[in-house]
Amino acid sequence: MGDTTYVVLFIVFAAPFAFYVLAALFIALWPKKKLHGSYEGKHVLVTGGSQGLGRAIAFQLVAAGANVTILSRSAEKLKIVVDEAQKSATPGRGQIAYQAVDTRDFGAMQYAVAAAESMFGPIDILFPVVGKARTAKLEQLSIEDHKQAMEINYFGTLNTVYAVLPTMRERKQGSIVFITSGAAMTSYIGYAAYSPSKYAVRGLADCLRNELEYSGVTVHIAYPGQMDTPGFAEEQLTKPAECKAIEADDTMHQPEAVAKVILRDLQNGKYNMYCGDLGISILGVLGAGMSPRTNWALDILLFPIGILAGWIVRSTWSSKVRQGTSEPDMTAYQQV
Fold it and tell me: Which residues cross the membrane (predicted)?
């Protein structure tokens, strides 16, 4: 090869690569405008606040000086969370209250939101965290199981948004942080009821992000991975053996760590929040669709790696299903 050939090859391959590397570094290092400079004094509504991720978000917000209202169906569990949060809160900074309500009941949600706003003022930030997963193979799930998944995970979220959004629109300010799951980007055996409901929440978030773009209300979506929560423990009762095998090497995140990442990403104005999970971050590179990307240049660099990783992981999933023969204990499932 002549010198000219080497120059041409460099221009064709090396120069674009160098451009994207430099662009990725520039985007990563460029100072970001803070969406929420501080949570102090903000009124934050958290559904599913009695345990797991919702509880962790509420605790950290109270510690940051926010006024937090937590919602759940269990008044007993909510009261315990409120008592614990008040004991650890700094006097004069951050308050917490609760409303026992079923998010599937829109009328009750309207009443709960009105009561919350009468105590702490208009809601500045909404975290619809409430969710439930019933895991089993499709034919071991009833149609009612699928309906319940949609009622809790999708319509519970939708009812909350309908109850809170009008005031945000009127004030021309506010943030909604939808909580989905890695199961809103991909799915596999065991999540036939849960995953579609989370895909639905993702579709709602993508739609509202565009619809509210110039309203002063910002929309965000978080994709937590496996978390050490009571809900995850409940899933294990009926989860197919193949599903457990697929997830055996997944990182188990603590809800407190996930909450910290979500609150930081919200301050930085990120739309897609991957919650510190590498696998879900790669899924985001491959499956963000038309949604805003935090670092488009880095995504371009990682896309080929993601394609290869996806092929390897998918092959592993197929192998686990091929090897699987055991059935979950449906007696335990009926008791959940």
Answer: 6-30, 296-313
